[in-house]
């Protein structure tokens, strides 16, 4: 017997599907009841709940260089483009962020973590290079 999936989000616009047996389905078919998206990749997570994605519609975004939450190797093997979001505070933004000088843009503290930077640099000569914003 197949366990039914549950809708997460708004069925008319943006939704995921969750199934207690197979985990989260982030492939976003046309409607919640549409057949599954053809090219799918199931990823294990540290939370013991799998996540299924559609590589053609997916771009992992690395925010704050938190390696714990993302394995670039899995994404690269699936042909998924990596997007790195590296941020820093401008002089104008200092007033709003206590201790913000530690996170000034274009400084060592806000640079991409070295292993991720090395990976980013290597990707630049591939067909699907990483992007950084």
Characterize the structure shown.
The protein has 133 residues and is an alpha/beta fold. It has 2 domains: 1-56, no CATH class; 59-133, no CATH class. 12% of the residues lie in helices and 20% in strands. The chain has 2 helices and 8 strands. The strands form 2 sheets. A 5-stranded mixed β-sheet has the order 1-2-3-5-4, with no helix packed on it. It has a 3-stranded parallel β-sheet with strand order 6-7-8, with no helix packed on it. Strand 2 and strand 3 form a beta hairpin. The protein starts with 5 loop residues before the first strand and ends with a strand. The model is unreliable at 66-70 (pLDDT under 50).
Kindly provide the radius of gyration, computed on alpha-carbon positions and rounded to a whole number of angstroms: 18 Å
Number of domains: 2
**Relative helix content:** 10-25%
Mean pLDDT comes to: 76
> How does the helix and strand content classify structurally?
alpha/beta
Strand order of the largest sheet: 1-2-3-5-4
How far apart, in Å, are the first and last alpha carbons?
A: 46 Å
Organism: Lasiosphaeria hispida
Protein name: Isochorismatase-like domain-containing protein
Short description:
The protein is an alpha/beta fold and 133 residues long.
How are the secondary structure elements laid out?
Blueprint: E1 6-9, E2 15-19, E3 23-25, E4 41-43, E5 51-53, E6 61-63, H1 72-77, E7 83-85, H2 114-123, E8 131-132
Parallel strand pairs: 3-5, 6-7, 7-8
Antiparallel strand pairs: 1-2, 2-3, 4-5
């Amino acid at each position: 017997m197949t366990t039914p999936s549950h809708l997460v989000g708004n069925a008319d616009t943006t939704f995921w599907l969750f199934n207690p047996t197979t985990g989260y389905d982030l492939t976003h078919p046309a409607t919640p009841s549409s057949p599954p998206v053809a090219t799918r990749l199931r990823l294990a997570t540290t939370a013991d709940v799998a996540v299924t994605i559609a590589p053609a519609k997916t771009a992992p975004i690395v925010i704050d260089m938190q390696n714990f939450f993302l394995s670039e190797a899995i994404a690269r093997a699936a042909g998924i483009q990596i997007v790195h979001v590296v941020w820093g505070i401008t002089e104008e933004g200092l007033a709003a962020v206590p201790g913000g000088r530690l996170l000034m843009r274009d400084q060592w503290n806000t640079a991409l973590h070295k292993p991720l930077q090395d990976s980013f640099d290597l990707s630049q000569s591939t067909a699907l290079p990483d992007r950084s914003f």
